[in-house]
């Protein structure tokens, strides 16, 4: 269809984005944070409009008001249980109804877990329904209530099996979520295979033991010096301990990132929309560069750089997205899915990404 | 710079096919015409500006989602002057301008923060005592059976309380078996002293300063103020991003204000003076806690008292300096009373002492 090397391209530049980012930051501060719903909307409008897919740009049509309404709804939904955990729980335990309090609290946590799943689903649906390309939008006819339960039990299975089934839970939930989404008249489908990322995961899983074991071996010479009583063990011990702590703080996030990078490649790579095949090319080192860049930016600008993180993350995402195959735009018809009325407040409350 | 020729594209919102119709305009509206037929007339006022896309201005229609008209290059004057303006920051801000809107928001924000910070001070005195008492009962109950009732202990504690309560406030002071050095004032005139604090104290005089301080909080109605402040803050900071909001909230509400702490200390010293109890003993107690803090570290759970009542040299000095050199002091409790009080928990076989729920 086109000769560009990737179907996706991000054509924005930060000088154009700066006035948006900085005024957003200003307005968010002077409104005690309430402007952030409108700020998010302005940011997305820019980012989407600078994102080319095949031969035309995306358009974001969500509004700040929708996000705000979503937020208010969530506050209403979460307020009662949170108040209970804050005050009621203590009162119940103090009065000797410990068992009842524990059961109610467990119930509330399951409810939160359910809401978390529901939130992810609905946020994705909301974003697709507000994303337009060639005058066509995405969406889903599913409300996500069933997905919420899947999310509860699949994650429970993932954790119960000593955490070894987590890749299965992540892939299976990804497939279920995207399988219910559509763009125009076409349905998405995903068949991410957890087997392909299992080795990475096992490495991630075994890492704590490896580090611990390595640490113990490293301690042996130190112990021996201390045992014989000659020389000053202080310096050696200190170096070992510091190296050990540094290893924990550096290696663990890296390994988790390595797993997550593999997961994203597998998950997006398994995504299809009719004849289009998607692909995500970011490798672990790309993610590391993104995170280090983000941290550096925020530190160097004394925090003002926070306003640019959304831009960096989006451009990272688009730069690594690819799609193959052809799409027949004449056959791409308008979506007939219902458009949700309110934004992603629920997801906002849990503070996680939608994709 | 040479102006680009006028370009026009169109999506009808029904299929993804890009069209390039001709636009035939008049005063009231326009019609789009191509080989497949025509769309219109559409009134100019039905157009909604949707920003730009690749340098081209994009317009939509309110009633037809997905319908798009893109205009690029040199837009003919007869069309350009009829097009609506896109919104920038959002309706209200666009109307009055960014600078003026920011100033207004800033003023409102300052007012809100001020109101929320100071409202508890005005509201707290008007909360009916009966309501506050019910609230206290609801929160505390019987403290999970951890209140101690060793023989003579409560009587001794009541005797100490009476001396330090010149205003005859309806107080309910209890000792709870909790292995932490702490004392808290709760709504409804309830004060709970954790028995570890009694064990660390050397005399009733040392406990008097701590108890007097908590009575000071009750007297100044600080407890209700703190509760109201916490509730108010969680509402306004709910608008902020979760993390910063929560952090702020904890910072501002976990402790009483420094002024309230100082006022409670003053009340404590005044009460001790009236009861002829020496404040010097309390200063000594604080000094010992300070030494323990250095040894155990600030985060030590056992020294809970210090996290809500930060020790400072100033506080210790305040108590030490208010001991008058030639005053006639007498012990706050008799030796027998003090012993009964210290052992109020160990002499009570029925008290519960598991503390799993406090380990959070």
From TrEMBL, chain A:
Annotated transmembrane regions: 20-38, 67-85, 97-119, 202-224, 236-262, 290-311
Keywords: Membrane, Transmembrane, Transmembrane helix
Keyword Transferase: no
Protein name in UniProt: DUF898 domain-containing protein
